[in-house]
Structures are given as C-alpha cells and as structure tokens.
Amino acid sequence: MHVCFLDIDGTLISTGGAGREAFVVTLDKDFGIRNASSAGVTFAGRSDRAIALELLERHGVAPTAENWARFRPAYVRRLREVLPTFQGRVLPGVVPLLESLAARGDVALGLLTGNIRDAARSKLTHYGLWQWFPFGGFGDEHTDRCDIAAAALAAARLHLNGNSHGRVLVIGDTPNDVTCGRAIGARCVAVPTGTTPTDVLRKAKPDVLVETLEDAEPILRLLD
Question: Which residues contact residue 143 at a Cβ distance below 8 angstroms, ignoring those fewer than 6 apart?
Fold first, then answer.
C-alpha cells in the first residue's frame, strides 16, 4: 500500500487569510494584546506551534508550554469564527486528484501539515475535504516539520496495520514540504499554489514540480 501525504494551506486550500487573522484575533481577544500584528512572521511551511510561540514572544508573552496550551483552543475557536468571513477556496485540481488517488485502491491518503489537528479539521470541514484524510501528522506538539513528518508516517503505519510497504509521496507548496518529505524517504511533489514562487520551489529539487494539481499525470506516475 502506498501512502500519499498532502499539506493543507496553499496545497489543498486557500483560506483567503483566515488563518493569519485567527492568530491575530486570538492575541487580541484572548491574550489582551491590542493592535496585535503578524507582520514579519513567516507562516508558510511552518507549524502552528512555531508560529504561535513566535507571535507570543514578539508581543511580550513568554513562549511557554503553558501559554501554548492556553493559545491552542482559543485559536481554534477564533478560526471557526473567521473562516466564513473570508473568500477562500479549494485549489485547482484538488478534488479530481484525490478521486484519482482513491480510485487506484492502493493509495492511503493522509495529511502532513503544520496545522494543529483541530485547526486542520475546522479548515477542511469548512471546505468539504476532511473526510478524505483518516490519519496524518499535525503541528500540535512539534515545531519542526521533519518531526511532524515522522509522526505522520507512524500514524500511516498504525492506520494500515503495518501494511505500508509501498512508496511514500508528499505533496506541498513550500520548500519545507520537500525537506520534511525527504526526511521520511518520500518522493516529493511541489506546487506553487501557495505563496512560494516556482523558481524557489525548483531549487528545493522536488521529484515533480507542477503548476497546479490539475496536472495529475506526473504525480500519479510517481506511484507506478
């Protein structure tokens, strides 16, 4: 059985900025930080935990495990509030690709994302995609995407009862997706549907670089 992991933001969906807004609103409403800003903080390719701890520190709040535990449920609550107010979308080719992979019968679909699990569920439920992904690696505990990738692979093996001896594929929109894919021995697909330009993704040396996931053929060939 092959395993195909997909990133969320910039790969499966665009929330139109809802995720970033939810971070800022959480700082304001739940931590009392007025005029909070996310300017200068990189979001793409990172874990929610790493982003939150950096934002807390920038705004004078200690980046402790206790403050992360406080931030996490507040952020999910704010995310659910703001998602309907932004013009997001499922990105081109996503649903046909998922259908093609599932139709093969030899591919298990999972998530490899920096989103915490509850945020991933909220985003993908909002866009009608959550049901595709029975397992994954998430950004609840780790700040390093390679650690998340290792957790995702362990989750896949558990889901498949050890029957994961096929190829592993990682699809994402940042160089970090390629890096963490390599860390678990995966073949890597890069797609510039997020904020990372094509030439930057090319330098990360993915196995396949496609302009959108509508170009499914070279992706499917990686599993043959």
Answer: 46, 47, 49, 50, 53
Topology classification of domain 2-15+88-221: Rossmann fold (3.40.50)
d(CA 145, CA 163): 24
| Residue 203: both structure tokens together | 């330098």
Q: Token pair for residue 81?
A: 């509030």
Residue 109: strand, helix, or coil? strand
Integer Cα distance of 39 and 66 in angstroms = 24
44-65 pLDDT per residue, tens:
899 999 999 999 999 999 999 9
Sheet of strand 2-6: strand arrangement: 136-137, 107-112, 2-6, 168-172, 187-190, 208-209
pTM of the predicted model as reported, rounded to 2 decimal places:
0.95
Q: Which of 170, 221, 175 is nearest to 202 (CA)?
A: 175
Structure confidence at residue 224 (pLDDT): 86
